[in-house]
């Protein structure tokens, strides 16, 4: 009797399950429609033509004097910056930059944080 009940329940469960074949799906939905929060703002910025909305790219150092320091954009009051002092150096010299205070690296280059609109 127990095996008969088990077969009936199994058959009923199989009958009520429906499958959607993949062949009816013509295309994938747009990821912007599903994104929310900061991910959506990042995707919209990339769509608008800004490939690096968070300014994570590597900046080439300019003259780096005290009068014309290397300008580093940031939407916050402080930012961690890495400086490769020499071309063949195998490590990065890290330092914190704070808004309004230019800072000198050990190699002699000056850096200054400038305000940037947040994403």
TrEMBL record:
<feature type="binding site">
    <location>
        <position position="105"/>
    </location>
    <ligand>
        <name>Zn(2+)</name>
    </ligand>
</feature>
<dbReference type="GO" id="GO:0006123">
    <property type="term" value="P:mitochondrial electron transport, cytochrome c to oxygen"/>
</dbReference>
<feature type="binding site">
    <location>
        <position position="107"/>
    </location>
    <ligand>
        <name>Zn(2+)</name>
    </ligand>
</feature>
<dbReference type="GO" id="GO:0045277">
    <property type="term" value="C:respiratory chain complex IV"/>
</dbReference>
<dbReference type="Pfam" id="PF01215">
    <property type="entry name" value="COX5B"/>
</dbReference>
<dbReference type="GO" id="GO:0005740">
    <property type="term" value="C:mitochondrial envelope"/>
</dbReference>
<protein>
    <recommendedName>
        <fullName>Cytochrome c oxidase subunit 5B, mitochondrial</fullName>
    </recommendedName>
</protein>
<dbReference type="GO" id="GO:0046872">
    <property type="term" value="F:metal ion binding"/>
</dbReference>
<keyword id="KW-0862">Zinc</keyword>
<feature type="binding site">
    <location>
        <position position="85"/>
    </location>
    <ligand>
        <name>Zn(2+)</name>
    </ligand>
</feature>
<dbReference type="InterPro" id="IPR036972">
    <property type="entry name" value="Cyt_c_oxidase_su5b_sf"/>
</dbReference>
<keyword id="KW-0479">Metal-binding</keyword>
<dbReference type="InterPro" id="IPR002124">
    <property type="entry name" value="Cyt_c_oxidase_su5b"/>
</dbReference>
<feature type="binding site">
    <location>
        <position position="83"/>
    </location>
    <ligand>
        <name>Zn(2+)</name>
    </ligand>
</feature>
């Amino acid at each position: 009797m127990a095996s008969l009940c088990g077969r009936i329940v199994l058959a009923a469960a199989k009958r009520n399950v429906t499958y959607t074949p993949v062949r009816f799906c013509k295309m994938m939905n747009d990821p912007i429609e599903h994104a929310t929060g900061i991910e959506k703002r990042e995707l919209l910025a990339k769509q608008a033509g800004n490939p690096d909305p968070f300014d994570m790219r590597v900046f080439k150092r300019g003259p780096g004097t005290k009068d014309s320091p290397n300008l580093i954009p940031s939407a916050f009051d402080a930012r961690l910056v890495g400086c490769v002092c020499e071309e063949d150096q195998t490590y990065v010299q890290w330092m914190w930059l704070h808004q309004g205070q230019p800072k000198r690296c050990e190699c002699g280059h000056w850096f200054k944080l400038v305000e940037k609109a947040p994403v």
